[in-house]
Amino acid sequence: MNYSDNAINVLSVKSYRGVGRAWIMKNMKGNESINTIVDLLNQHLKETITVEDFYTTRQLMVNKIMRLKNHIDGVVAIGDDNFPSHRGNVKQSEQPVVLFYRGDLSLLNKSNKNIAVIGLLTPDSNIEDIEKKIVSELIKHKITIVSGLALGCDSIAHKQAIDSNGTTIAILPSSLDDILPASNKVLAKEIISKNGLLVTEYYEKAKSKQELASRYQDRDRLQALFSDGIILSASYAKNDQGNDSGSRLAMKYALNYSIPRAVLYNFQTNGNDPKYDLNRQIINEDSNVIVINSENLTTSLKIIIEKTHRVIYKPLSITDFL
Questions:
Q1: 107-113: which pairs have CB atoms within 8 A and are 24 or more residues apart?
Q2: CB atoms < 10 A from the CB of 85, how many?
Q3: CB of 201 within 8 A of CB of 98?
Q4: pLDDT tens per residue, the chain (322 residues)?
């Protein structure tokens, strides 16, 4: 297992109550000395800690990580040379500070072109067929497919990338020793065997349903910020049942981060289909969204691929860091 002293330090800092991503991004650049870290923590924590206290915390963290040695290849954190850069205009509180991975971490590098393909849990055969065509076409252009390993559209995206001899990245809401959903454990192994990547921010199981729900939201955020573009196959709009909220969140994050977005939609045949309600809503709200259907598939995919190569992100303002 690969990890640096810096990664263990960042994980240890994050374990203190009241210390989150925003605080770490504001106060740490990575590779600080233990004394500096302790001084920073003591300016923030209610209780004073000593250098010896922090070393104890570090050892506990190493022990926890080593329990995962058969499930992960490594841990990286801000300050590590191989810590991947996010895409888009992302405020500090939403930038990742530590990642656990299995597979080819270099797939997250900015030099690698990634496009997320996401959607609902229960696609019909028409959605599945055109999504497969979309993924196959992207693979022809050396694009890596990003998705969330969920059932339905996510699984279709990962499987088609593999079947097309491409690479795919699965971003998880769970630790790598507890793949969710459990029914996709075999698919997760196949992704790794085909030179892909599994990545997560977590090393332990969620302690409550509320925490797990928050982790799914964080997964949706990572799908956006590690992708050069994002394509929505199909999804319901917000409703009382909470159907497929992950797709809505990922598309919203992409909009906030200025990540190019595309949706699958046929104006002639999908007008009354609730499975395309979110697609229709996004089209009505965003004149810049790219609309993909079976008639324009090649040309519309060419547009989003070109956008991923030339997009320039605006500088963040001071308010983005608050």
A1: 107/144, 107/167, 107/169, 107/196, 107/197, 108/84, 108/169, 108/197, 108/199, 108/226, 109/84, 109/85, 110/84, 110/85, 112/144, 113/141, 113/142, 113/143, 113/144, 113/228, 113/305, 113/308, 113/309
A2: 11
A3: yes
A4: 999 999 999 999 999 999 999 999 999 999 999 999 999 999 999 999 999 999 999 999 999 999 999 999 999 999 999 999 999 999 999 999 999 999 999 999 999 999 999 999 999 999 999 999 999 999 999 999 999 999 999 999 999 999 999 999 999 999 999 999 999 999 999 999 999 999 999 999 999 999 999 999 999 999 999 999 999 999 998 865 656 678 999 999 999 999 999 999 999 999 889 999 999 999 999 999 999 999 999 999 999 998 887 554 444 443 433 3
Q: Where in the chain is the domain with CATH 3.40.50.450?
A: 106-321
What whole-number distance in Å separates Cα of residue 117 and Cα of residue 279? Answer: 13
| Residue in this structure with the two tokens 């959605």, named with its chain if needed | 127
Closest Cα partner for 170 from 94, 111, 99? Answer: 99
Class of domain 106-321: alpha beta
3-state secondary structure of 150: coil
